[in-house]
Amino acid sequence: MPAAGDATVRVSHVLGGRLDPAFHERIHALEHQDAVDLVIIPQSDLARRRLLMTTRRGVELAIALPRGERLFDGAILVLDDSHAIIVRAETERWLRLKPRSIADAIELGYQAGNLHWRVRFDGEVLLVPLEGRPEDYAARLEDLLSSGRVEMSMVQGEAGAGAGTGHHLHAHADNHHHGKGGG
Cα 156 from chain centroid? Predict the structure, then answer.
């Protein structure tokens, strides 16, 4: 396995998934040899095709995927007889925003869109994945929150722990052009 400080490992394709039958036994055997390294990638970066990351064991990766290929939890980036490097998606934290009325929901939706926040819907609740400090998001919604027109709480996990299939709204498909955090 490449050691920390070795040359950067270039990744140009996802080889497959950790649980794919074609790879499962090889990965399992490498796990028993302690030869599987992980690269932890925030959920918000999984859609990116170009990343510079460092694995848990300090191996630098330069990921440059072609169009149509995406990173995902369990994606195999490197696999040979002596080692593997696998993507582990970081658990996302979500703001759960519940408007009190239709008018409050419209204003909340307007604010989220104006700030270019990625969102998901879970019934009457708006879920926003945190890409910065929760306080920064709360500051942007100060009027709605302080007046009690919107209730805010935090949840962890995929789609805010229990959101259905949800609708996805991306104000901009290329979020990486906008700063991280509260907008």
Answer: 12
**What b-and-e string marks burial along 34-65, b requiring 16 or more CB atoms within 10 Å of the CB?**
eebbebebebbbbebeebebebeeebbbebeb
Average pLDDT per 10 consecutive residues for the chain, totaling 183 residues: 69 92 90 95 89 95 95 94 93 90 96 90 91 85 96 77 36 33 41
Helices (H), 33-158: 102-114, 134-140, 142-146
Class of domain 93-177: alpha beta
| β-bridge pairing 16-17 and 75-79 | antiparallel
Phi, psi torsion values for 40, nearest 5 degrees: -90, 120
Place of tokens 């593997």: 84
Chain region(s) in the chain for CATH 3.30.70.790: 93-177
CATH class of residue range 9-90: mainly beta
CB atoms within 10 A of CB 31: 13
Confidence (pLDDT) at 159: 52
Task: Name the segment(s) of the chain with CATH classification 2.60.260.20.
Answer: 9-90
pLDDT, position 15: 96
